[in-house]
Design a protein that fits this description.
The protein has 94 residues and is of the alpha+beta class. The protein is 44% helix and 12% strand. It contains four helices and two strands, in the order αααββα. It has helices spanning 18-30, 36-43, 50-61, 83-90, and strands at residues 64-68, 71-76. The protein has a two-stranded antiparallel ribbon with strand order 1-2. α1 (18-30) crosses α4 (83-90). This is Helix-turn-helix protein.
Length: 94
């Protein structure tokens, strides 16, 4: 199934699609200063939902993500997710 991509080539997965969370995690990892606004700009994920989505990554996938002021940082990808494979969801080939 093909998904619409934004101006940065990031697929716009539906709200209930786990790949949307993977895009969020990849954006936090990729951005130099991953604030809610910067993540929203890159991914199209509404900045007002990012805290809730980060909590899902913590609860459902065991990631350790901290927020220092406005900046998100990944301490650990947990035991389920593989950083390199998750990144492929954000920039799929083809």
């Amino acid at each position: 199934m093909q998904f619409h991509k934004n101006q940065f080539g990031v697929p716009q997965y539906p709200h209930d699609d786990a790949r949307r969370l993977f895009v969020l995690a990849s954006a936090i990892d990729l951005l130099e200063r991953p604030t809610a606004t910067a993540i929203d700009d890159l991914t199209g994920i509404d900045k007002t939902t990012i805290d809730d989505e980060v909590e899902k990554l913590r609860e459902q996938y065991g990631m350790v993500i901290h927020k220092f002021g406005e900046i998100y940082r990944i301490e650990s990808w947990g035991n389920i997710l593989n950083k390199d494979n998750v990144a492929k969801v954000m920039k799929p080939e083809g």
